[in-house]
Amino acid sequence: MDTQTLPLTACAQVWNGGSEFRNLSVDLPTPAQGEALATIDLATICGSDIHTISGRRPGPHPGILGHEAVGRITSIGPGGVKDFRGRQLQPGDRVIWSVTVACGQCARCQAGVTVKCVELLKTGHEPLDGGWGLSGGYSSHIHLRRGITMVSVPETVSDAAAAPVACATATVMAVMEAAGALAAKRVLISGAGMLGIVACAVAQHRGASAVHVRDINPERLALAREFGATDAAAPNADRPGLAVDIAVDVSGAAQAVESAFASLDIKGRMVLAGSVSPGPAVLLDPERMVRSLLTVTGVHNYEPKHLQEAMDFVHETRDTYQWGVLVEEPCALAELPFLMQPPTGRSLRKSVTPNAGTIRRTS
Ligand SMILES: [Zn+2]
Ligand SMILES: [Zn+2]
């Protein structure tokens, strides 16, 4: 884009609390050192935003939500900005960016746990009147702060395939790292939403010998089969004898967690990632944990390397898995308030094109 024609304001859907949204013009900041501005081509609506407006997850407001998006750099602050691989970015370059923005200096950042930085900021989760007003994806533009991770998007990856990478796919990369090697392992995935479907694909791609998926929704179970599940069934269909090496919970349902724990074979490993809002406690029998040599671990969000790994995975598997089918045809940004409800059928994400006319949807 010619810098002469850059607009001065962004057009955003600002969340006012509850289910109230307002269309607002927001002044575009001048990017400081290490920062950039980007236009947003497609933003997908993650389930956690729906939790936020339903009150199940606290969120500052007024503010711009949205943390799964893909767009193009429009302007860059002094000194330039680089993508995760160290490539200098230029205006027009297509990128996705991380959910978390870390300081890089605190003890947690220094220990490699940037996801729990003591000064953590989160994309699409900051107040409009704070230091990072244009933080979310439901806007024509986003301010890419210093400390955010940017990953270049190959032109062969569609917007619909790229946008969910920034939350769902990257989180699954962190989950599967915690799960360990998958080759020849029996894997159970509880929950066939976006994370569960991605987890199926990763398990199949990395050579799992069996990929069992449990969900109550038959259409999602059918999707799971298309994305690598070898056995997809309702939770109550579990045979008492199901034994797995790795159990991944992305459902957050207490019963699913208990049932997955019960399925772990000797040396089994369970990774919990779905329990992101308060719920009932679950019973994990410590004697069984000791005698069966079990490991239970939790994963929340992801580190910068997982964002790159997730983009690479979607790129490498673009001919194997129809990533684009998981996202509904996009709507205009003004429709956002009507889209903030769980998707139905085969769709796992609703989406908006904040700059309609620049849609890039090739699969
Ligand atoms: Zn999310
Ligand atoms: Zn930090």
Content of β-strand: 15-25%
Tell me the name of the CATH homologous superfamily of the largest domain: Medium-chain alcohol dehydrogenases, catalytic domain
The second-level CATH architecture of the largest domain is Alpha-Beta Complex
Average residue-wise pLDDT? 94
User: Residue share in helices?
Assistant: 10-25%
Per DSSP, the total helix count is: 10
CATH third-level topology of the largest domain: Quinone Oxidoreductase, Chain A, domain 1
- How many angstroms does the end-to-end distance come to? 25 Å
Bound ligand species: zinc ion
Assign the structural class, choosing from mainly alpha, mainly beta, alpha/beta, alpha+beta, or little secondary structure. alpha/beta
Number of strands: 17
- Which class of the largest domain in CATH terms? Alpha Beta
Shape: globular
In sequence order, what are the helices and strands, one letter per element?
Answer: EEEHEEEHEEEHHEHEHEEHEHEHEHE
Q: Measured on Cα atoms, how large is the radius of gyration?
A: 20 Å
As an assembly, this protein is: single chain
Keywords:
363 residues; alpha/beta; 2 domains; 7-stranded mixed sheet; 10 helices; 23% strand; disordered C terminus; binds zinc ion
Q: In words, what does this structure look like?
A:
With 363 residues, this protein is an alpha/beta fold. The chain has two domains: 177 residues, Alpha-Beta Complex (Quinone Oxidoreductase, Chain A, domain 1), CATH 3.90.180; 129 residues, 3-Layer(aba) Sandwich (Rossmann fold). The C terminus is likely disordered. One zinc ion (ZN) binds next to loops.
